[in-house]
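Hi Y.,

Following your request, here is the sequence exactly as I used it, all 226 residues.
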Amino acid sequence: MPLQITAPGLTPSASSTTRNSDLGKKDIFLKLLVAQMKNQDPLKPQDATQMSAQLAQFNMVEQQTSTNGLLKQLVANGSVGASGGLGGALDGASAGYLGRTVTINQNTLEYMGVNPTFSTNLALDAASVQMVVRDSSGQAVRTMNLGAKAAGAQSITWNGLNDVGSMAPLGSYSVEINALDYQGQPMTANVQRSGLVDSVRLAASGVQLMVGGIPANLADISEVRL
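Below is the corresponding structure, written out as tokens. Let me know if you'd prefer a different format.
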């Protein structure tokens, strides 16, 4: 007569209840496997091929459990969108941004001896535009008066010199742009920088692109180019 095996402590009616309790599929499978080994016929031990297949199934269950845990973490971080992908997130970013040049709304940079270029987009003609470069402590190291600028996108380059004409040390800097209209009123002058996306990472705040050694959020991207 075929041997019927029931996991210890589980009846057919209790099994369905247990599946909805704290015991997951992984725990149920493990109990069934142990019970099967305990109740096998000593003269006809469990076939090794079947045992290998069952262990492989157990491994798949464990991997799925780990995957589900990761997905829950991504959902909690807001990285998984309604479409079921990673937000148009990690996979989409890897495929769509790696190796491309992007423009981002960000005013920070890592100065490595190469003259960095920024841009600003003026809504109106500006009577005067000034760029201030600050070091990591917030101290102004270079103030550049750029004169009048027309409305639209304007490109601005810092040559790496400080206000006394010496080369600024390598390191982290930030840039601010101040603009006045022809009535002498302050104008909004955003700061953007462009660079190549060399890696994509998942941070606590969500997916980030590494551009010139500095992380940038997907929400700050204003343009993507080949």
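The domain at 82-106+192-226 is CATH 2.30.30 (SH3 type barrels.).

Thanks again,
Q.
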